Amino acid sequence: MDHTVARLENSEECEQFAINVAAKHPELALEARRRSIHFMASTHGEVTEVEFAGLQAIHASEQAIRKLYGRKGVGLRPWPIVKKLGILPALEKLAADTRMAKVSAAALVEVGMEDMTYDSVIQKYPDSFTPVAVNAAKRRSGAAEAALAAAE
User: Fold this and answer.
1) Which residues lie below 8 Å from residue 130, measured CB to CB, with a gap of 6+?
2) d(CA 42, CA 92)
3) Coil, strand or helix at 36
4) What is the pTM of this model?
5) CA 67: distance to chain centroid?
6) Is residue 109 within 8 Å of residue 103, measured between CB atoms?
7) Tell me: the pLDDT tens digits for 64-102?
8) What one-character DSSP code corresponds to residue 42?
9) Where are the domains of the chain?
10) DSSP string, 104-148
């Protein structure tokens, strides 16, 4: 991590830094956005490693959508689902909702954070999710890779 990004102390500083350097140093802006996501996920208290990754995926999705579309929503409201179901079941549900997952994944790929999609988290921690969710995540990821290959 770049030393300037490492010195940023909270999410707001990271966001402002990313805005300031985006034009000349897009790689530093991406690093700052990732650090911002880390800070935001850290505000949820004590959670397991997989729950933390899930929180990061949700925050990353919101941030990417906000960056691309200039607003918070586009009809996606993950936090009521997280509050109702818990982090991991909510992540499964968010990934299974094709509209939500597609908008989120497309936004994350566009901003260079494809490793933070809901499906990426499910595939990284398969023991924490149902076999149905893991298989569906693999299938969706395979289809997305095939679509990218066809587009090139």
Assistant:
1) 92
2) 21
3) helix
4) 0.84
5) 13
6) no
7) 888 777 765 555 678 899 999 999 999 999 888 877 778
8) H
9) 44-151
10) HHHHHHHTT-GGGSHHHHHHHSGGGS-HHHHHHHHHHHHHHHHHH
